[in-house]
Amino acid sequence: DHDDHGDHDDHDDHGDHGHVPYSSLPSAEDYPGTLLGDPETGDATLVISLLEGDTHLTDDTQPYLLVSPRTPYNRVPLADMALSATIDRDGEELATFDLEQTLDDEYDLHYGAETGLADTELEPGDTVTITVESPPQVSRHRGYETAFLEMPAVEVAVPEEVPE
Q1: Where in the sequence does UniProt note compositional bias of the Basic and acidic residues kind (predicted)?
Q2: Which stretches of 10-55 are DSSP H helices?
């Protein structure tokens, strides 16, 4: 009996009344730019993409490094993390910089930075290492008591085709 819904006869658009709705991020392939990878660390997947310099997220023509942490199966965003990125070329560290948490209407919750912040242009073959400085601040409940607490750094390589 759904008397509390007034005169709504069609309930198809209401979903399942027994569950709280949650946000689901786009799949890795749905992000623009060059997908550098979607490695797993701990209990999370990190979608890592390099966006063209003319995105609304940058002040100039530098590429934007976007990292979208999420649960691997339902793509639930992981908020309130501290992430950093390190760029290596031929085994030499060129730059390390923090990624800023951003809530954006186009790319949803993600962490990012202009790669130019480190005065380093990414080149094919460069390695980008994403380090979790502090884990996401998620509610600890049954099944999640230890989730996301140990998240080793992940590495991805810049492919031969880099956005100009």
Answers
A1: 1-19
A2: none
Q: Is residue 8 part of a domain?
A: no
From its phi and psi, is residue 61 left (phi > 0), alpha (psi between -120 and 50) or beta? alpha
Give the C-alpha separation, 145 to 141, whole Å: 6
pTM beyond cutoff 0.70: yes
In a domain, 78, yes or no: yes
d(CA 86, CA 93): 7
| φ, ψ at 4 (rounded to 5°) | -75, 0
Q: What is the CATH number of the domain that holds 139?
A: 2.60.40.2480
User: Among 83, 70, 69, 72, which residue's Cα sits nearest to residue 129?
Assistant: 83
Say how many CA atoms lie within 13 Å of 126 toward its Cβ. 20
Domain span including residue 75: 23-157
Domains: count for the chain = 1
Residue 150 and residue 44 in contact, taking contact as beta carbons nearer than 8 Å: no
